[in-house]
User: Which sequence fits this backbone?
């Protein structure tokens, strides 16, 4: 199974061919419009957000078994769903208010879906908008604590597990602020439970012209 997560920075309809060229079974798409997701002919699609022009979308491109699950409202933004027995939370950690924002939102989402994530092989994937380097800005609910919380549920970051690096010591960036190479950070993640799958991160020379985020391309071996 191939799962792609890409914050395509708006304009999904004009960038869809780039995603389809990656041949995903599922795409997790932060910063997409409700209309563009609804207009896709895919038989599985979901969208959540308060701004119809800029929310979180999920599209299932292939003939698999998809099931959408209920998400607590006003937790910006996440979509829980299942694909062929794999429980997935697609994520765009955004801002609800002064207190509940970015990594603090993700803590709340994981806490609300503990049973869902523990009940089957699971994946949390998307734009987390967080990293250990900003731990001091979120006392009590920081990124390192989130890594521990997910680890207690059996989920590990695929990138960090395969590259054998610590959080905060990443050598590959997934986001370039204002598309400047010297403002690079690693803020997009795939946390998976089970045997570590393989994952590629899109190269900046191929993707930076389209978005300030690089896609994550996750391949999970199936029995």
Assistant:
């Amino acid at each position: 199974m191939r799962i792609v997560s890409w914050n395509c920075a708006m304009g999904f309809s004009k960038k869809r061919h780039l995603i389809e060229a990656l041949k995903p079974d599922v795409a997790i798409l932060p910063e997409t419009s409700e209309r563009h997701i609804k207009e896709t002919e895919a038989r599985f699609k979901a969208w959540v957000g308060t701004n119809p022009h800029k929310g979180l979308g999920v599209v299932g491109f292939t003939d698999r078994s998809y099931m959408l699950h209920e998400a607590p409202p006003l937790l910006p933004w996440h979509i829980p769903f299942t694909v062929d027995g794999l429980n997935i939370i697609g994520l765009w950690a955004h801002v609800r208010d002064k207190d509940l924002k970015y990594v603090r939102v993700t803590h709340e989402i994981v806490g609300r879906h503990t049973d869902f994530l523990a009940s089957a092989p699971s994946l949390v994937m998307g734009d987390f908008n967080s990293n250990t380097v900003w731990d001091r800005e979120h006392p009590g609910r920081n990124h390192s604590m989130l890594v521990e919380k997910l680890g207690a549920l059996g989920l590990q970051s695929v990138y960090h597990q395969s590259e054998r690096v610590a959080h905060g010591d990443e050598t590959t960036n997934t986001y370039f602020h204002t598309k400047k190479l010297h403002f690079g950070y690693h803020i997009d993640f795939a946390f998976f439970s089970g045997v570590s799958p393989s994952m590629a991160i899109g190269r900046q020379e191929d993707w930076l012209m389209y978005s300030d985020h690089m896609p994550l391309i996750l391949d999970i071996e199936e029995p």
Notes: The radius of gyration is 16 Å. The chain is about 20% helix and 30% strand.
